[in-house]
Amino acid sequence: MKVKLFFKELFKDTLNTAWVMFKIMIPVSIVVKILQMTGVIVYIGIALSPIMRLVGLPGEMGLVWGTGMITNLFGGIMAYLNVAPSFHLTVAQTTVLALMMLVAHTFPIELQVARKAGVKLITMFIWRFGFAFLMGLVLNLIYNGFNVLQEPSVITWKRQVIVDPSLQAWAVGELKNYLTIFLFIFSLLLLIKILKVTGVINIITKGLSPLLKLMGIGAEVTTIAIIGLTLGVVYGGVLIINESKNKNINKRDIFYCLALMGLCHSVIEDSILMIALGGHYTGVLIFRFLISMLIMWAVVKYTKHLSDSSFAKYFLAKKNN
């Protein structure tokens, strides 16, 4: 009976968590599809051209970054595979673009998840977009200043895609994605429960708490922060939403956790994708991780002096709905 009750509660938690995610993803996916069909993303890419030139990239790479921000990382990768061959980018340039894409992508969904978790949408947009640009700017100066990675970029990761432009094919693909997400959430929550029972969570929390505490992230969200760093903002954010219903999590911890995840998430999978695309590990992995930790340390040091009302005014959403 205990096993039956365990899985009954697990399935219920999975349904509740998935429903929170789907309420965000489904309408956003429809809007994004409309933007793709109407060609709005092309104009967004054009608007980003001046920014791309500031970080040492051709203005046309704005289409790549814009596509990644509006759709997802894979959408940006597909745009890159179509656009980049005409410009013969260096490894340094590809790495700068990859870094910016890693920090700022899938905005329609990930920003909504952050808002639902309790952070202002506009704040998280400025945070991720602004630091994506600044990190790209600094990395470009470093590579050019030391004259490294100036050899031609080589794409070692290629994906053969058969595109069916029909709405029916898109709808079927979305349903498959939602089913995959549901199964993933089930597996993730099961894993977390197992780690809690076996005490592994406590070991991980104690090991990383000093580092995360230095950046203002409390022990209550340490596990979620780790999940966000390894798996992504959406899963980490949804877990914050779920955990907030069961316990009173400090609002500052929620912001700091989501802010860290916004700068540095999916460090394994996404980094591998960008390296295979032609980026270099020094930028997409090492620089990204270290600079994210440095940024968080600086932000926490500054914001810890703010009153709760001031902090809420600038960083927190008024409602978690």
- The mean pLDDT is 86
User: Can you summarize the main beta sheet?
Assistant: none
Radius of gyration: 20 Å
Low-confidence stretches: none
Specify the overall morphology: globular
List the helices and strands and how they pair.
Elements: H1 2-38, H2 40-47, H3 49-54, H4 61-70, H5 73-83, H6 91-103, H7 107-117, H8 121-145, H9 167-198, H10 200-214, H11 222-231, H12 233-246, H13 251-263, H14 269-276, H15 281-303, H16 308-315
Sum this structure up briefly.
The protein has 321 residues and is mainly alpha-helical. The protein has one domain (2-315).
Question: What can you see in these coordinates?
Answer:
- The protein has 321 residues and is mostly helical.
- It has one domain.
- Helix content is 76%, strand content 0%.
- The chain contains 16 helices and no strands.
- The chain has helices at residues 2-38, 40-47, 49-54, 61-70, 73-83, 91-103, 107-117, 121-145, 167-198, 200-214, 222-231, 233-246, 251-263, 269-276, 281-303, 308-315.
- The longest helix has 37 residues, at 2-38.
- The radius of gyration is 20 Å and the shape is globular.
- The mean pLDDT is 86.
